[in-house]
Design goal:
Layout lengths: L1 H24 L4 E9 L8 E8 L2 E4 L5 E6 L4 E8 L2 E9 L3 E8 L3 E8 L1
Antiparallel strand pairs: 1-2, 1-8, 2-3, 3-4, 4-5, 5-6, 6-7, 7-8
Length: 117
Amino acid sequence: MSYFRKPAITASLFAALASATPSAAATFDGDWNVQIISSNAACSSGASLSIEINNGQVASNSTAVTASGRVAEAGAIRVTLASGMKRAVGSGVLTGTSGSGTWRAALCSGTWTAQRM
């Protein structure tokens, strides 16, 4: 009998963890202003982008740049930005009101900082 209980308990545990993640990541929900800095002089630097986080999901507030990604419950963030054929991926950490990390694209890379708006 206990053989049949283990899968049911394991499934219940995974379901509970999966449902807990979005609500925990929701603490980062809201609008964020992201400053993008390039470490390569040949690439443009100083761009600013507004993103929205909703239930841990990242989206762009811009029509020129799309953003997709996810924020984990501890604030770890992974994002993909796209504009036409150009694409960049970034990762880092958000806290209650700010964040920072790194990004990379085909020929450029750098750092980013974020402030909650």
